[in-house]
Amino acid sequence: MSANNSAYKNPQFLISADELRERHQKNNIKIFDTNVDFQISNSGPVIESGQRIYKKGQIRGAGFIDLLNDWSDQSSALAFTVLSRDLLVEKIGQSGISNECEVILYSSGAMMWAARAWWILYYAGHMNIKLLNGSYGGWISSGGEISSGFNTYAPEIFIPSWSREAFSSLSVVESALAGNVCTLNALPEDAHKGLASNLTHRRGHIPGSLSLSASSLLTGDYFLDAESLAMALDSVGALSEKPVITYCGAGIAATIDAFALKLMGKDDVSVFDGSLEEWAQDDTRMLNSGSF
Fold it and tell me: Does the pTM exceed 0.90?
């Protein structure tokens, strides 16, 4: 299965498995699995590096980006806080990413992990990054070659050009609620309404935010075709002139919504990095139930 990229406003942000198979051996292409092993147990979320799963099978020659341990701030109380700029630049270069290479990102788990890595590289100013539409499952279905073990690329020098609006802080989100901003919750609709867990100790959503689940923008690990994607985004006013802030439980699924908006040509999009994990820490900070 694949979507027709030509109708997206920014089709260069996606690549199909068939196209990647044709270009797989080009020297300037760097391919990375970005998976994080995320499970829900009776006692709550269990989060581990996806490296063990990656080693069992990956797109032939692909490297691994450890979003949990390498590309997140280990000093933060929140699970996936973006690194400081200096450290992020260092980690990007250590992964083997330069400004000149073309970066292809996928996940052997949920697509949201690849979208998170894409968003981080977008924040750092990389100009040639693509998500593999269909991710690892799509690659397998297309007959793409796989390997096992652990592959690495030689370290490179990466020079950043920061996109300051890519991430929003808690204070920015609080200020935005009183302004002309479209705030989107990428968690499932039941979690938005407070009928299911949002992965924090409190249920509900940020006041004034609208429900646009990440899963509603995908069919499996494929993004909806351009017409369907535009309809979904338009249904919550996300393609209007308003700036958009996306959030979820920990700033991961939110990057699916944000990427979809970029794919459809929306410029002023930001991800609330701390998301509900940060918002819910203060019990005096409101969370609403229901649709509004």
Answer: yes
